[in-house]
Amino acid sequence: MITPAPGGMAPGEFRRWGHRFVDWVGDYLEEIGDYPVLAGTKPGQVRDALPTEAPLTGDPFEAVFEDFRSVIVPGMTHWNHPAFFAYFAVSGSGPGILGELLAAALNVNAMVWKSSPAATELEEVTLGWLRSFLGLPSVFRGTINDTASTSTFVALAAARERHLPEARQDGMAGAPPGRVYTSSEAHSSVLKSVHALGFGRRGVRAIATGPNRAMDPAALAKAIEHDVTSGFRPLAVVATIGTTSTTAVDPVGAVAGIARSHNLWLHIDAAYAGVAAALPGMRRHFADWEHADSIVVNPHKWLFTPVDCSVLYVRDPAQLREAFSLVPAYLETPETGVTHLMDHGLALGRRFRALKLWFVMRYFGREGLRNILAGHIALARHLADRVDAAPGWERHRPSPFSLVVLRRSPTGVRGRERDALNTAIMERVNESGTAFLSPTEIDGETWLRFAIGNIHTAVHHVDTTWETLRDAADTIG
Ligand SMILES: *Cc1c(COP(=O)(O)O)cnc(C)c1O
Prior knowledge:
The protein is an alpha/beta fold. The protein is 42% helix and 12% strand. It has helices at residues 13-31, 45-48, 61-72, 94-106, 117-133, 148-163, 166-170, 188-196, 217-228, 252-261, 299-302, 317-324, 354-389, 415-432, 459-476; strands at residues 141-145, 178-183, 204-207, 233-240, 265-269, 294-297, 310-314, 393-396, 403-408, 438-442, 445-451. Residues 88, 147-149, 187, 189, 240, 242-244, 269, 271-272, 298, 310 line the site of pyridoxal-5'-phosphate (PLP).
């Protein structure tokens, strides 16, 4: 018979390993710059190094930890590395990591208020803090989801509920074909959500962008008017503040006016850039975003909160409940005037994600967070100046936040040849293990994204990586 022991581990064992693991994490964070950013792992290598079955009797934890260090860690791409500049560079932070530890220990499931009152109420309080930090009006109510993909799905499900009520009873079969409008630069998660909601590929209308890669409002208005007269049911517009490819900003004011005049749901995808709304110098990029019905911002992207933590703000949470509330008898509780987070999305069970975000906001404070964000934007400016001053290099503009989009473009090298040159430069840098950049395509041409946003990044990491890029370019020719 198994004797009940703390956490199912032998007495004292949890504490012993806990201390060792925290020491390992401390060393890892202090030495992170010495790791190769990008794993040199071959496909299947990690799988092949591990047994195909779980052990019959438990393994000693010493052996487990040894495999973690010798098999798992070398197969990691280190997002914490200060020269991780790919995708959107994200990093957790000490208070966020410690928040995850305590949330795992409490292991609550805040589906209804009663199932964890403090988890529900802390989520409300912390998202109120974040809302005010971002300068959003208090009418907005937040909920934490795992990712922006889920937040956008939830927002568009609420839009379907409001603007295609036929679907509620009979499903999509008898309903008119719905349409969601977004720019051709929108994140793939918008398309995925529309497909998953049953609108099919025709359900998304990609609106052309102007030279700034921002949505062309005239094209949007024209598309909606055309659809209204052709039997489609326009439902929603998704505008982006800070697109993934180049951090373009859609003209939210004009888009909001068009959405309002057609009575459409306006969702704003600010998954990456949203936190920059906390900086007075960046506010102009967020003009009119308070006219949205819903907004997604990811603290796990640029607010030093460990993955996962995405916040969906909605103007009217009743509309989320319309779409998602379905209370079986076994979940009924007597309290009134409380929030049941299960009513705000697809998931019933949910992790206590508010704790780590609360820790991050308390530890750094509003001023501390603003300083880190402003520091990243200053680093991006610093790099942009260097790129602009370098002959044979080009920078894509505008990119107002902490991403720099650049390419090598020597005289006389164009088209596919220039694309191949940039891919080769990037691969050379990435293979060096000293930095990691990712590519994007603009008008069918290859550019390199140098995304700053990691809490460990200092100016010398940016300078060294820029030199590495230039050296690679010189070597390749
Ligand atoms: C990263 C990103 C997303 C997707 O975020 P997930 O949380 O990974 O789903 C959506 N939109 C934009 C603009 C992004 O940059």
